[in-house]
Amino acid sequence: MALTAALVWVGMAPLHATAQETVTIPKSRLEELERKAAELDRIKADLHQTKSENAKLQVQNQEARAKLAAAPGMVETNTSPAISTLGSLTESDIVPAVDLANHFKFEQDLAKTRYGNRKFRVSGIITGFEKPAFVRPYKIFLRTNDPRTIVACEFIPEERFSAVYPVKNGTELRGMAAGTPVTIARLGDHVVIDGQCKGNRESGVALMGSRLDISR
Fold it and tell me: Which residue among 91, 121, 167, 213 is buried most deeply as judged by most CB within 10 Å?
């Protein structure tokens, strides 16, 4: 009897071990794993698509840069009179904005000597305004031969103006005087500005304006 019992116990051992290796997963957990697997597949697909689109954009950017490099460049020619041919500068002299920009661009050292911190008058066509919020000064930009270069004239508003602001999509500059809006300048106006040259800046020439005369 003892031998028989032992044989039965030994014979049953493998069946018990097999039962322990079987894992039962709840249906909710299985569905959660399936959702995560599907989400992972979607993320992989999106990542692949993103990489493909980025590669296309890189090719397009390279082609655009190549076309830009191959395009005819702007011919930079100094059309203004050489500084050496000019007489002494006085406060009443009127310097065209085009000449002022060209002098600082093509004859920078001589321009610094001639115009730096000097007072004189500048004439030109208004191409834009700038009036940052929370500060009183505003700027008027004058046209030059190079669209990448500007002559920027900064003004402190007259005491009669409680506020200065651009209107009509930035094409007109107005000041508020005693509750009444007053037009200061418009795009395209030909102006003569009394000011002091503050030298060249990264984008052009800077002046501190003191008076603005407009001819329309």
Answer: 121
Q: Where are the domains of the chain?
A: 88-156+188-215
pLDDT tens for 149-205 read 899 999 999 999 999 999 999 999 999 999 999 999 999 999 999 999 999 887 899
For 4, residues 6+ apart whose C-beta sits below 8 A from its C-beta are none
Can you tell me whether residue 189 is helix, strand or coil?
A: coil
In order of 137, 172, 184, 186, 215, the CA distances from 181 in angstroms are 18, 12, 9, 14, 20
CATH number of 88-156+188-215: 2.40.50.140
List of long-range contacts for 157-165, beta carbons under 8 Å, 24+ apart: 164/131, 164/136, 164/138, 165/131
Note the pLDDT tens digit of each residue in 199-209.
Answer: 988 789 999 99
Packed helices 97-106 and 108-115: angle between N→C axes, nearest 10 degrees: 130
